[in-house]
């Protein structure tokens, strides 16, 4: 019933849901920033998380920052379209938020982990899954360390997750290698244009 409800909304409004995943530090945020600057008609979903804000991150802008209790309450009340634990924290996409965005008539982009992406695909098979790959494992590690946002223990957890995320990439509709940033942004634009033309 729920699945049907979401599919109806999307079909009625002829809007698509794009899901971007990839290992932590691969450059998802950077590629999306470039994409959204050139394509402001797209809306980037704001997720909920129990992770603490990084310096400069703002509640309700970068994430809805929740306590573990608040997050658990949302799970129990079935408020998430998808949710997952990632490297010791919880992350989730609120159904209500996605609904509101669709009502505003915008195409939505979710930037979520691979477990969440596969949950979305199950519920909404028309969602387009795009995986951002690093040019190499070394480049990924350098980027993650170079960002200076995580301590060593967290970096290790994220690098371990990276290997599992790469295996799940096989189930995605598209893969984009983020080596040259400009090329990666153009490739993302081409994928989305192709999907919109086919809609
Ligand atoms: P993610 O959102 O996937 O965790 P970020 O967008 O935060 O990753 O990028 C991680 C780091 O890698 C940042 O310091 C960013 O500037 C850098 N980065 C992103 N894309 C590239 C690229 N194509 N080449 C080199 N560095 C990049
Ligand atoms: P970060 O802590 O670096 O912001 O995000 C860590 C990971 O959580 C990234 O892979 C990011 O894509 C993922 N993530 C962010 N929001 C969500 C969400 O709502 N759901 C899921 N499943 N993953 C998310």
What's the topology here?
Elements: H1 2-13, E1 17-21, H2 28-38, E2 42-44, E3 48-49, E4 64-65, H3 68-76, E5 80-86, E6 89-94, H4 95-103, E7 107-111, H5 114-123, E8 128-133, H6 137-146, H7 152-168, E9 174-177, H8 181-198
Parallel strand pairs: 1-7, 1-8, 2-7, 3-4, 8-9
Antiparallel strand pairs: 3-6, 5-6
Bound molecules: adenosine-5'-diphosphate and guanosine-5'-monophosphate.
State the major sheet: 5 strands, parallel
Q: Which class of secondary structure composition applies to the elements?
A: alpha/beta
- What form results from the Cα inertia axes? globular
Compute the separation of the termini in Å: 23 Å
**What integer value in Å does the Rg equal?**
16 Å
The side-by-side strand order for the widest beta sheet comes to: 2-7-1-8-9
Mean pLDDT: 92
In this entry the ligands are: adenosine-5'-diphosphate, guanosine-5'-monophosphate
Question: Would you identify the CATH architecture?
Answer: 3-Layer(aba) Sandwich
CATH topology value = Rossmann fold
Number of separate structural domains: 1
Total DSSP E strands: 9
The CATH homologous superfamily corresponds to: P-loop containing nucleotide triphosphate hydrolases
**Low-pLDDT segments, ≥5 res:** none
Q: What is the highest CATH level, the class?
A: Alpha Beta
């Amino acid at each position: 019933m729920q699945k049907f409800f979401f599919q109806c909304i999307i079909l009625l409004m002829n809007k698509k849901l794009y899901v971007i995943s990839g290992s932590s530090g691969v450059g998802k945020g950077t590629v999306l920033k470039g994409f959204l600057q050139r394509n402001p008609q797209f809306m980037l979903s704001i997720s909920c998380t129990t992770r603490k804000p990084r310096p400069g991150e703002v509640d309700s802008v970068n994430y809805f920052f929740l306590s573990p209790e608040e997050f658990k309450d949302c799970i129990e009340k079935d408020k998430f379209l998808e949710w997952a634990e990632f490297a010791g924290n919880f992350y989730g996409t609120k159904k209500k938020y996605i609904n509101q965005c669709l009502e505003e008539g915008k195409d939505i982009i979710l930037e979520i982990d691979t477990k969440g992406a596969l949950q979305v695909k199950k519920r909404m098979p028309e969602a387009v899954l795009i995986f951002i790959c690093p040019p190499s494992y070394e480049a990924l590690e350098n980027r993650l360390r170079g960002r200076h946002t995580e301590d060593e223990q967290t970096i290790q957890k994220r690098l371990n997750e990276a290997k599992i995320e790469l295996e799940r990439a096989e189930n995605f509709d598209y893969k984009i290698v983020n080596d040259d940033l400009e090329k990666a942004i153009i490739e993302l634009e081409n994928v989305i244009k192709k999907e919109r033309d086919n809609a």
